[in-house]
Amino acid sequence: MQREVKVNLAKELGVEPLGVGAWAWGTKNIWGYGQEYGRKEVGEAFRESVENGVSFIDTAEIYGNGESERIVGEMLREGGFSRETVIATKFAPLPYRISPRSSLDALDASLVRLGVPSVDLYQIHFNSPVPNKNGLLDALAEAVHEGKVRHVGVSNYNADATYRAYERLAKHGVKLASNQVQYSLLHRKPETNGVLDACRDLGVTLIAYSPIAQGLLTGKYAPGNKPSGMMRRFGSAFRESNLRRVEPVVDILREIGKTREREPAQVALNWLVRKGTMPIPGAKDGKQARQNAAALGWSLTNEEVERLDLATLGWR
Ligand SMILES: NC(=O)c1ccc[n+]([C@@H]2O[C@H](COP(=O)([O-])OP(=O)(O)OC[C@H]3O[C@@H](n4cnc5c(N)ncnc54)[C@H](OP(=O)(O)O)[C@@H]3O)[C@@H](O)[C@H]2O)c1
After folding, report:
1. In this structure, is residue 114 part of a structural domain?
2. What percent of the chain stands above pLDDT 90?
3. Ligand 1 centre and the CA of 215: distance in Å?
4. pLDDT tens for each residue of 210-227
5. How many domains does the chain contain in total?
């Protein structure tokens, strides 16, 4: 089977350039955890991801107020996986957490919820509104030297902030590993706002979040058929006019996928891998996890990538 060229972070961590996002695990109001799906389903999503080659799990201290990390911890304790899991989590630099030490305290709390002595990737969830951003990066470099964190990443950083974070960490001999930003066929801003170029220039892996546009690129939602869960039901992405606008994109994904017996979401994820990024689709159950894992092991042709590039130019 053909293998993709692995992105830097994936290579260093020994994982495929595709992960699974755990935001929906334990998150009630936004995603409907505990109503439409629950602990059993997300446990299966975890297990099926790993068993199908997707061993990079992305969570955050704020997902479900810590519940996502707790579930990941339970699964790790349950064990029995045929390959090693790699865990990424995030620190939320909320305005009241002004001291750099607060990130180290938050890290300790995450480690307790996850039940592990260290995490593979610790990310700053968004650019801190507090003035002393360097202090935060210095503290995370310290956590690397203490062995509590293997790699440091950022998230939602613009190009300038990415360069600055890279330089600050480099002073401590730590390489900025990743910048996690929204990127999909329906959200191509990283290509024009300098973030993708900055990541390529620095050798920083771009981790693509909401890579199937929160379900829009699966083709299962259409005018008159909106998802449940507060955020998507009332969000602008799922209004009728947008659902209609997505249809021709999904048609192309279907057409491209047909010859390889792949679903639209799998084609959309493969497009991101072909851009040299590492998508982390959320999966709520085992079936979704298996389907998303099948975005790997094959590759879109250059012509197909170009066709999708052109078809979604208006989505920048
Ligand atoms: N750093 C940040 O600020 C940030 C922000 C957002 C997300 N993230 C990370 O990125 C991850 C993924 O982003 P996301 O959850 O926003 O969006 P996404 O991955 O684009 O969409 C996930 C949703 O799509 C549906 N889905 C997934 N796989 C499917 C499949 N094979 N078939 C049909 N439907 C499928 C599921 O919802 P339904 O079944 O209900 O449709 C799932 O919850 C998150 O879990 C989180 O780890 C990070």
Report:
1. yes
2. 86
3. 7
4. 999 999 999 999 888 888
5. 1
User: Catalytic residue numbers?
Assistant: 63
10-16 LR contacts (CB < 8 Å, sep 24+): 10/56, 10/205, 10/278, 12/151, 12/177, 13/56, 13/86, 13/120, 13/121, 13/150, 13/151, 14/84, 14/86, 15/54, 15/55, 15/56, 15/86, 16/53, 16/54, 16/55, 16/56, 16/296
Q: Does residue 63 have its Cβ closer than 6 Å to ligand 1?
A: no
- The domain of 97 spans 8-217+272-296
How many Å apart are CA 27 and CA 65, to the nearest integer? 8
303 lies in some domain: no
In contact, 119 and 149? CB cutoff 8 Å: yes
Query: What CATH number is attached to the domain comprising 73?
Result: 3.20.20.100
φ, ψ dihedrals at 278, nearest 5°: -120, 95
Pocket test for ligand 1, best of 288, 291, 292, 296 (most atoms within 8 A of CB): 288
What band does 5 get if pLDDT is binned at 50, 70 and 90?
very low
Contact call for residues 207 and 153 (beta carbons, < 8 A): yes
Q: Between these two residues, 224 and 277, which has the higher pLDDT value? A: 277
> Does 242 fall in a domain?
no
Side chain identity at 183, as an amino acid letter? Y
Q: Look at residue 177 and tell me if it is in a domain.
A: yes
